[in-house]
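[job 0412] stage=fold_complex status=start
inputs:
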Amino acid sequence: MTENDKASSRPTVADRSLSAAIAVDHLVKVYKQTRAVDDISFSLPRGSITGLLGGNGAGKTTTIATIMGLVLPTSGRVQVLGHRMPEESAAVLGRMNFESPYVDMPMRLTVRQNLTVFGMLYAVKNLSDRIAKLADDLDLTEFIDRANGKLSAGQKTRVALAKALINQPELLLLDEPTASLDPDTADWVRGHLERYRRANNATILLASHNMLEVERLCDRVIIMKRGRIEDDDTPEAIMARYNRTTLEEVFLDVARGRVNGAKEAAR
Amino acid sequence: MTELSLHRGISVHRIGAMILRYWYLLMSSWPRLLELLYWPALQVITWGFLQLYIAQNANFFARAGGTLIGAVILWDILFRGQLGFSISFLEEMWARNLGNLMMSPLKPIEFLLSLMIMSLIRLAIGVIPMTLLALFLFHFNVYALGVPLIAFFCNLIFTSWSVGIFVSGLVLRNGLGAESIVWTLMFAIMPLACVYYPVSVLPVWLQYIAWVLPPTYVFEGMRALLIENTFRTDLMLSALAINVVLLVASFGAFLALLRSARKQGSLLSGGE
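[job 0412] stage=fold_complex status=done
writing structure:
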């Protein structure tokens, strides 16, 4: 098969979007003078875990917010579970969920009250059983009747994760899911996410600054810089391309503009 | 939260979830509950004694018993109705919970309906004790107004919701930096709504503006009832017609501001 044949048989973004959990096509987001996301395209197959990496201001949060429908794109297209966002968001919002450091759970409500309210919003069946299961899985039982504002940072993160899993989402968007957790709890949360993905064939898109976390969890990594995709491949392929042994080293190469040098050294 | 499926499948379950959320919040904080009672009670006591004093010294007020205290109670329905709506909305901003709601299947119309119901609940907690105080301290029984009271109440609460929806949209779009509008906008309406004096007191050009506001019709209607013993249905129907227009316009403005907030990217931040 020639290169041309390969190119013509390669599925387009529109084709991939039919089966993809997320299909982003030439997405651009401009805030006044700032080009936060600059013509990016990618497609995530269902059941995959993808890490979105990049320094501060790389465009990760804007990308995730656009996928969630919280931000309107300046141009380009986003499809989630086969539906255009935000136009058809009513068809998918009940099938996805998210966790982000930019939002909190209401502080005065207890963990159980918060999960009850969100369970009702997501029309979860057998809600008390679901809450009991999550409390058991995420070790919330000890403080389930305590106000969210009185929990430690790590406990709050677990509660936010419980809220993100309340509707057993097909698509989970996570922004720094283990920030503020001690290494033991963070490792335990990663294990839980892996098990959840396997058990539900869920798709997870994860923005993180923790490179070990990304290496452990993700089948694929998208590296962003200044609103553009700098690289997109498996963690192993990216590390090989940059002639590095860890994603952290790759991250530093990209952040400090040593990309070409590192790639040439690898060649 | 999606804007484009407003008329399909409004869920009572999701509205119930939001009411439950605000109920949990209200019950978790005695200062919040106390505040609901405190200001209306203070208002009615202050104005009630003023009315007693004036009635002893002015013939007109002796005849028009209750116009001041009645105006205070009706004004509080308008003001507390809007605050009850807007504070529930602000709670989401203060709690940084708006992103969670916007990402959930909750629709804007369901969110607004839950805020309307909460404004009624908060109003009931604050205003019913206020009316009882007026009855026992000043022998003014607002419930004796009968059917007209229902017309007054409905028109005032519709206006309060329109203002509440509009200012919530402004806060959604501009963040908590616009919070002061929630507390002050209704006071800008107060002199034009002619709460304590008839419309005829205003200069003619200002009267045209006053008649655009539904509360003006209500307060004129209240004075007609208390002074002339006449229930002006024409005033109530005019107020209702303007209220329908205001409600539709405020909802449209809310959706436009929500869309602008999505463009601006302010839904995740919500800060100043």
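[job 0412] summary: Residues 2-7 of chain B have pLDDT under 50 and may be disordered.
[job 0412] exit 0
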